[in-house]
Inverse folding.
């Protein structure tokens, strides 16, 4: 295979340039940002090429070691779809950063940002649980550093909390991997997924719990998501946009890759092996996350903190979607995941632009924004309505699918979705509280806010994307439908593509 | 049915149903209840007390009229619609009665509003009032009670008298200041 | 051809109702006088009053004032045409009770509009009291309507009268006694007789709505009152006293009802507005509901 | 009733009983408030009337405050003399609020200025510019003839009654 | 597969996009809105009953076809809503309140889709779209702060309503596997005999949404706020048309078979579920009337009046007899007509007098005679006075009620209708009659456009009052399509009730004749002369001396104060206590939960470990 259509480039190129940026840094600080822009641009075009030209499923073998022996990257419909989403959002945030990141150590920021995107795409692409750990560490470390970037002291506090909790998470994950490795002797996801039954159920449940709690940190599920509000509020808006956009995707993907493909059992509804059905555990965690996220966002006065809680709650909703286990549920989950990252990163970028224009983060400061900058307030409204799931906006179809799937599954899931719907009423309340502030005009004549070109592009593109998906959902719909298939039908979807010869027992 | 016969018929009906404005200005008003109630019952002549000048035909001035009350009486008289009649009760309306030399009571009512019938007596008894009502009915039926037309015809004279009393701009006798100043 | 005939009959009935109404008021004044040991005016006194009023000049407050009072008079004139009286029944299949009631509310609305366009607060307070009082007596009357509708299974007055034909025994008065008493008290409110005449209280609000009504407008008001009197008593006769065979018995029955109302009027003092409404919602409503339950169960 | 008369005399005022239920107190202008508050303190709560008498020959006005003790059914007349030129008097409103009305009337008909009384405008006589009418030096007959034009020689055949000279 | 149906939905969407672009230029924006409404009406003429259109949308894995089909009910609803919308937008060409055209067009698109859609996903999509579009348009009201609060309150109610419909849709989908409404209803009515409680549960899920949107008793608290504080140009549409979506929904989900067999018949032969709905309708009617009587803000007064009229409609429909449903739909149409007229005239009055408080207006009939007449015809028809259109439906409702032997309901409805007369006259008097204050001297009559609309509305009200046949025929078709025997509508204008029937033109002829007689008598008697408003009977006191001003002499403050004591105990029950209670409860819990995120790393780490331990124990025990 020619070097150019090898998927490993998606990880290799950003890492290569990440470490060569200090050289460019010598020439000029601004150049580093342009370099990051080009690299992520390459990443985006290449992954779009794979996605649109339907180049998947493809297995990329490292050093001719055929799986299950060597490491491999597996690009299924999920991987291709999520990588392209990650890199597009990364590209847009990079464009935003051109304007946003001026002061402080620009080169260091660009290096970290490139590592961050490389790590995230790595998590999504890798077919090996240990590799998954490595990429998780790469994204982890770069996101702590990115979170700490910026003049404000609170950033340090947030980053430190993130560091503590996610290091606990990764250690737990590592323990789980070792347990699996001692049992089955292999690290390859496909092989583990096929031979999961050979492990003793007690040990398997313990390993599963460790793995799930490890990944739950990154996927922001209830007990492990303490760090979310402070990190997001502390970080610079560009960084919190990328955290909520990219890190969230990779976190949730990793959690459910392990839960459904590795530990899961095929069937109408995916159940995990072992004594405890981890999917119901995740469902419980997810519902509590939604409830807690929405309710604590209700009484927030600071907009950024409110968005943080809301993204935590949305991640819970996505987790509920996945944990239903049916094809429709996972479809809803992925669709909501993508919609959320689009809308939430746009909202964070808008907050960033407003903060730069001197507007405080209090909810009251949004009063009369419509007069001061129609473009930003319109974008904010579109983002808010898409989060709430109003029709004509992207969020509607995904929330529709999740609720449909959970009611279709019936049983105690009706109660789950009841709570989620109640929580989303609360969410509707605090989002619309801001929207009504925006449209209610104040007497004091405030100056117009001028939005320079470079932040305007990403916001505009994302807003158009939301409306486009809202009006005609099939842009994202088909891809998420195929990827849902890969999750729910573990054997046919994932394992046999990687190791055609394996026999499941 | 020529014009005169028609007006004669109209006057007949007007005579048979006269409505009195229940508006008591002076001490004669106490004479009205006996006229209305069972002993003398004026309702048999179709006369009932009405609440507002718009609905009334007869305006009773039942006693002395101070300048202040006169102003209100003239305003009420204007609010009544023609044909309207005025009955002056007692001597106070004729020549000021016992207040003939009072600084506040007018002496002749018909200098200010046209009066159709004066009823003598320092407050006439109900019989006198009943008699005046019947007299008024005959005058109306014969078409002689034309007080209101007299008012409209020489309105300037009446207006002059009224302004003379109401619209004084300088004192009638002497300047109050130089009197009180000295006293 | 029949249209012309109906037209003449209609105008005839209108004139009849005015004449009978005025006669009733005249006789009423005579009887009240007699009760107060007074001699009292001749029964045809009201015809003199009407003629005098119409020949008297008057003041008006704009075309809404004129239109309102004319509407008050003519809406009732239109309603009286549908009332079956004795053998004169101009539109036999078109005399629904609810329709007549609503036509009468048109008269009240017209009069209310005209009177309150004069801008005199006395008038508007009077109208507010009249509307509240209407809400008061309309509710027990609704109970009565309900029980009559259910009992005679028809809505048009002509059929109700037909249902009560035959001797005294099958009059609704006998068969729906509670309903009759409730309707009787409601009738007292409708006619605006003494316990419920707070709308035109001369002492408190200077004869209420009629404060600005001069000559011919007061004439229209009096005509409206007379036709209203005729219709309301006519409805009561049709509903409860088995609607007479010929017009004279019909008028006699009407007079009996009016006489009863007059008796109460001559003696009773005047209710305050909220006392009047709460009185109407206590006893008559209770009777009406009892009657309705009897009929329904 | 005698005990009030005795105490008032002891206060240096000339008090004397007029009947078995009434007594009068002559006080100078300055001590009116003092006597009235003493009387009010000892049971004379009801203020009945404030009168003014025009002694044109002495050139003085006499103000008579009539108060009553309802419990013992005794009335007191507190009299004081004020000069006729530029007549003025302190208001008694702080003792009895209703004095305001009486003082207004006396001001309107006698021209006595009451300091401290908030509202002394015209009330009965509208548009009155002449001498306050109840003063003796105001000739009411001449005013009436001037204003209402009723001359004796008007041919109404009604002879006005002859005039009684006041002494 | 007629494509003109899709045009009915697509046209407003395109129009709203165009209007959104030109939102800066007020007149252009309103012109586009009006043109879109007019062309939609034009397209509507080509739509006939029975046409259908569906297009596939591969979503949720299956090719989900969103079907539109036109039934009698939907064609009726489409006609009245779009026709009224055209009249309103034509009128608002001259108005300059802050109504955004593109939002109204979005609502129109949703409106057409709701009335035509036969599948639940499309229905829900349009319902939500209409929901948020109307919430945002309520925001533009005159008083900033109040309209913001009203919009939030309305939004919460409509979102929770649509979520309950969400539940209903998918439970049905789980049972029947298809989204099409007709199939689901057929399925429901087939199993109603077996386990009625289950069916009642599902139908009540839908009914909660429809009752919220129509503003019926338990969920009516948002109605006065939303109507009173939304922009004046939007309130007519909100109150006249949008409250009918709830009614349309109820009619859609309440076919005869569904309710009839399943439940034991309660008092008077009406199944007890319907009996409850009749009582809910009646309570709403009485509640609306009583609260409306004592309002001082005119828009709030008419909001409560819409509430009470919708109570009438629900009470009539819930009877589920041919007369009942005909009366209900007829009253819904009448309510749309006269309430729309009242609010349109209010639009003119409020924009000219600058205030919506009843106590600050008065005597405007001298300055705005045509608006005065329209308002008069409006309140006459709202009070149900014969020649105008309100009478027919009220008359039929009473007949339907009496036919079903419901004494208390009839009595309360009568109370509501006379109460209606009270507050209608109060509004009429306080705005137009009485003393004209001097600062309204410059007020001018509405412009030509306004006059045309007002004449048209007056003509419509009298026309449908005199000739109810034109409306009763389509309603008869609807009733037949719902499986009931429709009311016989013989000659045009001949309304047959259960008990008696009236030939309505006859009433108008007798009124015309008696009016001519009245005028003749008026001009025969002595002449009258016109007098200014100050020349009133004031017991002899001359106004100038007394310092009388038109404002002080106008009686419109505390209009029904004596009766207030009568209803005082009634006001103490705070109905929306429940909703405010839940609101505050969630807020307190929210702030309590916020404490969890204490903010120091050790706590988070501690949480993580504790969570882990719990899982391990759970795994060990399982």
């Amino acid at each position: 295979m020619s070097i150019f259509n090898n998927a490993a480039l998606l990880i290799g190129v950003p890492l290569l340039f990440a470490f060569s940026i200090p050289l460019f840094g010598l020439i000029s600080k601004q150049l580093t940002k342009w370099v990051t822009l080009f690299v992520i641009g390459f990443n985006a075009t290449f992954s779009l090429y794979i996605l649109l030209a339907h180049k998947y499923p493809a297995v990329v073998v490292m050093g001719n070691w055929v799986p299950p022996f060597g490491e491999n990257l597996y690009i299924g419909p999920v991987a291709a779809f999520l990588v392209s989403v990650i890199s597009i959002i990364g590209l847009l945030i990079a464009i935003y950063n051109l304007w946003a990141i001026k002061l402080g150590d620009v080169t260091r920021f660009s290096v970290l940002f490139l590592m961050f995107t490389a790590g995230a795409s790595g998590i999504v692409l890798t077919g090996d649980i240990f590799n998954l750990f490595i990429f998780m560490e790469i994204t982890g470390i770069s996101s702590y550093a990115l979170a700490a970037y910026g003049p404000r002291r609170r950033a340090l506090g947030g980053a430190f909390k993130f560091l503590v909790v996610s290091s606990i998470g990764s250690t737990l994950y590592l323990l789980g991997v070792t347990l699996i490795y001692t049992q089955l002797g292999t690290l390859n996801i496909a092989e583990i997924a096929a031979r999961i039954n050979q492990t003793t159920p007690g040990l398997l449940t313990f390993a599963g719990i460790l793995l799930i709690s490890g990944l739950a940190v990154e996927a922001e599920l209830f007990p492990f998501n303490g760090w979310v509000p402070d990190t997001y509020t502390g970080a610079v808006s560009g960084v919190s946009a990328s955290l909520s956009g990219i890190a969230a995707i990779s976190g949730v993907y990793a959690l459910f890759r392990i839960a459904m493909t590795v530990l899961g059992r095929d069937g109408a509804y995916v159940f995990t092996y072992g004594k405890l059905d981890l999917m119901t555990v995740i469902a419980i965690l997810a519902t509590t996350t939604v409830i807690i996220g929405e309710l604590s966002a209700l009484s927030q006065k600071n907009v950024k903190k409110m968005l943080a809680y809301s993204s935590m709650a949305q991640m819970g909703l996505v987790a509920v979607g996945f944990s239903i286990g049916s094809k429709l549920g996972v479809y809803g989950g992925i669709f909501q995941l993508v919609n959320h990252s689009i809308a939430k990163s746009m909202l964070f970028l808008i907050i960033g632009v407003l903060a730069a224009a001197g507007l405080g983060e209090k909810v009251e400061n949004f009063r009369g924004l419509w007069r001061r900058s129609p473009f930003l307030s319109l974008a904010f409204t579109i983002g808010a309505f898409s989060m709430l799931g109003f029709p004509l906006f992207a969020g509607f179809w995904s929330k529709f699918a999740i609720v449909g799937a959970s009611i279709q599954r019936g049983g105690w899931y009706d109660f789950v979705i009841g709570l989620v719907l109640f929580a989303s009423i609360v969410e509707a309340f605090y989002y619309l509280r801001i929207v009504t502030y925006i449209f209610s005009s104040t007497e004091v004549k405030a100056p117009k806010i001028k939005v320079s070109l470079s932040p305007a592009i990403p916001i505009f593109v994302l807003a158009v994307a939301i409306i486009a998906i809202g009006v005609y959902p099939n842009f994202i719909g088909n891809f998420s439908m195929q990827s849902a298939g890969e999750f729910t039908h573990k054997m046919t979807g994932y394992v046999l593509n990687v190791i055609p010869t394996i026999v499941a027992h | 049915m020529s014009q005169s016969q028609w007006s004669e018929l109209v006057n007949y009906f007007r005579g048979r149903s006269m409505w009195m404005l229940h508006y008591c200005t002076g001490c004669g008003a106490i004479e009205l209840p006996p006229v209305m109630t069972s002993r003398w019952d004026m309702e048999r002549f179709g006369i009932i007390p009405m609440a507002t000048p718009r609905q009334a035909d007869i305006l009773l001035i039942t006693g002395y009229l101070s300048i202040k009350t006169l102003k209100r009486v003239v305003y009420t008289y204007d609010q009544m619609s023609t044909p309207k009649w005025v009955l002056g009760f007692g001597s106070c309306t004729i020549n000021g009665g016992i207040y003939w030399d009072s600084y506040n009571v007018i002496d002749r009512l018909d200098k200010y509003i046209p009066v159709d019938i004066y009823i003598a007596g320092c407050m006439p008894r109900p019989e006198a009032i009943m008699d005046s009502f019947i007299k008024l009915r005959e005058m109306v039926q014969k078409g002689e009670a034309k007080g209101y037309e007299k008012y409209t015809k020489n309105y300037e004279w009446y207006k002059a008298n009224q302004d003379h009393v109401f619209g004084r701009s300088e004192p009638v006798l002497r300047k109050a200041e130089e009197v009180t100043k000295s006293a | 051809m029949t249209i012309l005939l109906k037209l003449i009959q209609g105008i005839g009935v209108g004139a009849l109702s005015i004449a009978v109404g005025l006669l009733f008021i005249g006789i009423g004044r005579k009887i009240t006088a007699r009760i107060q040991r007074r001699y009292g005016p001749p029964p045809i006194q009201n015809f003199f009053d009407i003629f005098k009023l119409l020949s008297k000049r008057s003041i008006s407050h704009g075309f809404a004032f004129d239109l309102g009072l004319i509407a008050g008079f003519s809406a009732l004139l239109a309603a009286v045409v549908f009332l079956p009286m004795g053998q004169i029944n101009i539109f036999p299949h078109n005399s629904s009770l609810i329709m007549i009631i609503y036509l009468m509310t048109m008269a009240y609305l017209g009069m209310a509009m005209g009177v309150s366009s004069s801008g005199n607060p006395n008038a508007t307070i009077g109208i507010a009291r009249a509307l509240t009082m209407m809400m008061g007596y309309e509710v027990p009357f609704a109970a009565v309507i309900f029980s009559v509708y259910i009992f005679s299974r028809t809505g048009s007055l002509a059929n109700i009268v037909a249902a009560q034909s035959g001797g005294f025994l099958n009059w609704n008065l006998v068969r729906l006694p509670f309903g009759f008493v409730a309707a009787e008290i409601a009738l007292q409110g409708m006619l605006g007789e003494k316990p419920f005449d707070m709308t035109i209280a001369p002492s408190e609000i200077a004869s209420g709505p009629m404060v600005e009504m001069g000559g011919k407008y007061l004439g229209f008001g009096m005509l409206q009152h007379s036709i209203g009197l005729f219709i309301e008593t006519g409805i009561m006769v049709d509903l409860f006293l088995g609607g007479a065979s010929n017009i004279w018995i019909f008028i006699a029955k009407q007079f009996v009802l009016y006489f009863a109302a007059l008796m109460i009027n001559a003696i009773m003092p005047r209710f305050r507005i909220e006392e009047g409404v709460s009185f109407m919602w206590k006893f008559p409503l209770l009777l009406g509901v009892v009657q309705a339950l009897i009929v329904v169960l | 009733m005698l005990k009030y008369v005795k105490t008032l005399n002891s206060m240096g005022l000339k008090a004397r009983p007029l009947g078995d239920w009434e007594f009068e107190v002559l006080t100078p202008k300055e001590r009116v408030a003092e006597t009235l508050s003493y009387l009010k303190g000892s049971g004379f709560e009801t203020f009945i009337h404030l009168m003014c008498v025009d002694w044109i020959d002495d050139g003085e006005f006499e103000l008579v405050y009539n108060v009553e003790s309802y419990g013992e059914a005794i009335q007191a007349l507190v009299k004081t003399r004020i000069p006729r030129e530029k007549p003025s008097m302190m208001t008694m409103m702080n003792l009895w609020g209703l004095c305001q009305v009486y003082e207004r009337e006396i001001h309107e008909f006698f021209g006595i200025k009451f300091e401290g009384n908030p509202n002394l405008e015209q009330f009965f006589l509208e548009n009155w510019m002449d001498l306050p009418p109840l003063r003796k030096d105001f000739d009411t007959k001449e005013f009436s003839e001037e204003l209402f034009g009723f001359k004796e020689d008007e041919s109404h055949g009604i002879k006005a009654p002859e005039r009684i000279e006041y002494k | 597969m007629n494509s003109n149906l899709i045009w009915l939905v697509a046209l407003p969407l395109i129009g709203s996009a165009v209007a959104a672009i030109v939102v800066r230029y007020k007149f252009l924006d309103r012109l586009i809105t009006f043109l879109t409404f007019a062309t939609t009406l034009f397209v509507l003429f080509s739509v006939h009953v029975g046409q259908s259109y569906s297009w596939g949308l591969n979503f949720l894995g299956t090719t989900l076809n969103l079907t539109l089909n036109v039934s009698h009910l939907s064609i009726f609803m489409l006609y009245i809503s779009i026709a009224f919308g055209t009249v309103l937008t034509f009128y608002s060409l001259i108005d300059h309140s802050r109504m955004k055209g593109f939002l109204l067009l979005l609502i129109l698109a949703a409106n057409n889709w709701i009335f035509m859609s036969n599948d639940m996903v499309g229905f829900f999509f349009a319902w939500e779209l209409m929901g948020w579009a109307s919430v945002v348009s309520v925001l533009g009201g005159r008083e900033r702060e109040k309209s913001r609060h009203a919009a939030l309150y309305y939004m919460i109610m409509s979102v929770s309503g649509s979520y309950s419909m969400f539940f209903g849709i998918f439970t049905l989908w789980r049972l029947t596997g298809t989204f099409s409404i007709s199939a689901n209803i057929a399925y429901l009515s087939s199993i109603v005999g077996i386990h009625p409680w289950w069916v009642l549960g599902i139908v009540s899920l839908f009914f909660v949404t429809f009752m919220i949107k129509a503003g019926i008793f338990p969920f009516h608290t948002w109605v006065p706020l939303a109507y009173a504080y939304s922009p004046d140009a939007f309130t007519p549409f909100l109150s006249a048309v949008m409250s009918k979506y709830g009614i349309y929904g109820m009619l859609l989900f309440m076919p005869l078979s569904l309710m009839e067999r399943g439940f034991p018949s309660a008092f008077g032969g009406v199944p007890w579920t319907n009996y409850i709905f009749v009582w809910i309708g009646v309570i709403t009617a009485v509640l609306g009337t009583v609260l409306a009587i004592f309002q001082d803000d005119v828009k709030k007064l008419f909001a409560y009046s819409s509430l009470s009229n919708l109570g009438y409609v629900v009470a009539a429909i819930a009877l589920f007899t041919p007369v009942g449903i005909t009366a209900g739909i007829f009253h819904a149409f009448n309510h749309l007509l006269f309430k729309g007229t009242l609010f349109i005239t209010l639009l003119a009055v409020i924009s000219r007098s600058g205030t919506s408080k009843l106590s600050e207006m008065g005597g405007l009939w001298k300055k705005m005679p045509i608006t005065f007449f329209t308002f008069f015809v409006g309140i006459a028809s709202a009070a149900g006075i014969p020649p105008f259109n309100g009478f027919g439906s009220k008359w039929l409702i009473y007949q339907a009620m009496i036919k079903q032997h419901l004494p208390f309901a009839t009595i309360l409805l009568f109370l509501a209708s006379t109460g209606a007369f009270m507050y209608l006259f109060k509004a009429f008097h306080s705005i137009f009659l009485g003393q004209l204050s001097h600062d309204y001297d410059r007020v001018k009559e509405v412009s030509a456009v306004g006059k045309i609309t007002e004449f048209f509305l007056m003509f419509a009200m009298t026309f449908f009052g005199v000739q109810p046949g034109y409306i009763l025929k389509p309603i008869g078709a609807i009733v037949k399509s719902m499986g009931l025997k429709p009311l016989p509508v013989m000659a045009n204008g001949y309304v047959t009730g259960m008990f008696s029937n009236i030939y309505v033109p006859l009433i108008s002829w007798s009124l015309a004749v008696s009016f001519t007689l009245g005028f003749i008598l008026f001009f025969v008697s002595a002449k009258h002369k016109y007098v200014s408003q100050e020349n009133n009977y004031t017991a002899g006191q001359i106004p100038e001396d007394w310092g009388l001003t038109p404002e002080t002499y106008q009686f419109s403050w505390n209009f029904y104060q004596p009766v207030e004591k009568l209803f005082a105990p009634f006001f103490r029950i705070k109905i929306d206590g429940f909703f405010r209670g839940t609101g505050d409860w969630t807020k307190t819990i929210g702030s309590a939960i916020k404490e969890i995120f204490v903010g120091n790393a050790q706590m988070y780490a501690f949480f993580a470990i504790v969570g882990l331990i719990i899982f391990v124990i759970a795994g060990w025990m399982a």
In short: Residues 27 and 209 of chain C are 24 Å apart (CA to CA). Residues 2-35 of chain C form the longest helix (34 residues).
